[in-house]
Amino acid sequence: MTTPETMLIYTSLSTQPLSVPALQALVRRARERNAAAGITGLLLYLDDAFLQVLEGRREAVHALYADIARDPRHTGAYVLLDTPIRQRSFGDWSMGYAGVTRADLAALPGLSDFFLRNDPLSALPPGLALALVRGFVEAGAGGRWLAEPAARGH
Ligand SMILES: Cc1cc2nc3c(=O)[nH]c(=O)nc-3n(C[C@H](O)[C@H](O)[C@H](O)COP(=O)(O)O)c2cc1C
To answer: Measured between alpha carbons, how far is residue 69 from residues 13, 77, 106, 135, 150 in Å?
Structure first.
């Protein structure tokens, strides 16, 4: 049996609104480093908040999260979920970036109440964070959402 892997989901607030080029640079650099560390995942940026899913070996995920949490581009990093997984949800993505709106997320199964209430991402309960991951994998992975930061609407 292979070593169990971990999925960590956190949210944070950007310290200043990120331009598309700044977001592109962040994602490009994250992909390089994640590929080298065997990390995969998903990054959402919505209403000046981030939600990121990190998957990989437990130590690698925790070391990366410690690095990311210190990054001055955001603040208030808060772990929603940190759990062993049998299978990765974003195994093909060294860091998927999804250009989503609140309405897109409200359309995922089980998430409409939360996202239509306009609550901040930081208030997402762990069960709903999992529902979001599941909804993405079923509806969005490899599809219309996962893209380059500038690609939305093209
Ligand atoms: C919201 C957010 C998400 C990030 N995600 C990742 C990531 O998935 N992988 C990564 O290596 N760095 C990520 N970073 C960047 C790290 O915090 C860190 O700045 C970077 O990895 C260090 O790169 P450097 O060696 O070029 O300084 C993220 C930063 C922010 C603000």
So the answer is: 11, 6, 27, 26, 25
* Average confidence (pLDDT) per 10 residues, the chain, 154 residues: 86 93 93 96 93 97 98 97 95 87 91 92 93 86 58 40
CATH number of 5-147: 3.30.70.100
* pLDDT value, residue 20: 87
Choosing from 13, 67, 70, 90 the residue with most ligand 1 atoms within 8 A of its CB, the one to mutate for a pocket test is 67
Which residue lies with its CA nearest to atom 29 of ligand 1? 68
The Å distance, Cα 138 to ligand 1 centre, comes to: 27
